[in-house]
Amino acid sequence: MFENSHFPRAKKFWHMGKFHDWAESNVHAMSHALHYGTSVFEGIRAYQTADGPAIFRLPDHIERFFYSASLLRMNIPYTKQEIIEAIKQAVKENQLDSAYIRPLLYYSYGNLGLVPKHSPVELIIAAWEWGAYLGDRAEKGIHAYLLPWRRIHHTQFDMKAKLGGLYILSTIYGVLAREKGYDEAIFLNLEGNVAEGPGENILIVKDGVVKTNDMNESVLEGITRTSILKIAEDMGIPTSIGPITKHDFFTADEAFFSGTAVEIAPITQVLDDSEQDKSPKEYTIGSGTAGEITTKIIRVFKNIVAGENNSYKTWLTYVND
Ligand SMILES: Cc1ncc(COP(=O)(O)O)c(C=O)c1O
């Protein structure tokens, strides 16, 4: 039996077509994924709207889920539509108004050789209420730690995939940032440019232009990032895509993280510890508070996910059809 202290309002999880009590254990300790990280996951949010919970860009998340699974050569035991329905069910079953949703495909129990040829692929879907990922700071401004360790390079692995094992570095350096007294870590890439956070993209604003990087800079091109670029363009705010140098970052007027978990969170302070032979240096981004353009984009984003902006209705999948 598992106690539930960190998954508010989670009562049941979906596993291979059935709902189970949250406290129930049903994964064998010799499951392949537990040993080698041979799993694929998505992080998805549902938001409260006047017509019940609506899931943000669900088909896009499902596309990425299947793409990630293809890299692990997984035979997924369900269709995309079946998974979409099961996700809606998971929100309903737990009677959630808003939710963080975690579908997980994993090589389960069978064999323990590195090649999981006798380990079937199983699917779990969990949903619970998860507020601001980085706490209160997400609104006021994140203090970030620019790591001395570099992001895996895009020539080493396909950055589009969300594979369990790849996230070990995100965990290690996310912990390190917090040990140093910061809210979150930031990776440079091997070229020495700003890449991304452990689970977040980075966007900056300079002279009124919203800028971010892409896959060529060794980042996962997040669904939130892509949405923000579209929102900015629709608001008449120019956008650009390309490398973000450290200088660009430290001298930006505004900077923010984006991601499903973090949503949109201003970055206001950065400790640059990326040069191993130099002492760390602290930088304040812009005015040191949430910037004007960031704040405007947050407002429109909140409006969209709350189902209050008809122009973006196609981004929402309502749980109650
Ligand atoms: C490494 C990494 N970068 C960026 C993101 C943001 O992606 P999204 O906006 O699709 O959640 C995530 C989260 O999924 C991530 O894990």
Topology:
Elements: E1 12-15, E2 18-21, H1 32-36, E3 39-41, E4 44-47, E5 54-56, H2 58-71, H3 80-93, E6 99-107, E7 121-128, H4 137-140, E8 142-150, H5 168-179, E9 184-188, E10 194-196, E11 201-206, E12 209-212, H6 223-234, E13 239-241, H7 246-250, E14 254-259, E15 263-272, E16 281-284, H8 292-305, E17 316-318
Parallel strand pairs: 8-9, 8-15, 12-13
Antiparallel strand pairs: 1-2, 1-7, 3-6, 4-5, 4-6, 5-17, 6-7, 9-10, 11-12, 11-14, 14-15, 15-16
Bound molecules: pyridoxal-5'-phosphate (PLP).
Pyridoxal-5'-phosphate binds at residues 43, 196, 199-201, 220, 222-225, 258-260.
Characterization of the model:
The protein has 321 residues and is an alpha+beta fold. Strand 9 and strand 10 (194-196) form a beta hairpin. It starts with 11 loop residues before the first strand and ends with a strand. It has two domains: 12-128, D-amino Acid Aminotransferase, Chain A, domain 1 (2-Layer Sandwich), CATH 3.30.470.10; 137-305, D-amino Acid Aminotransferase, Chain A, domain 2. The protein is globular. The chain has helices at residues 32-36, 58-71, 80-93, 137-140, 168-179, 223-234, 246-250, 292-305, and strands at residues 12-15, 18-21, 39-41, 44-47, 54-56, 99-107, 121-128, 142-150, 184-188, 194-196, 201-206, 209-212, 239-241, 254-259, 263-272, 281-284, 316-318. 25% of the residues lie in helices and 27% in strands. The strands form two sheets. Strands 8, 9, 10, 11, 12, 13, 14, 15 and 16 form a nine-stranded mixed β-sheet that branches. Strands 1, 2, 3, 4, 5, 6, 7 and 17 form an eight-stranded antiparallel β-sheet that branches. The mean pLDDT is 96. It binds pyridoxal-5'-phosphate.
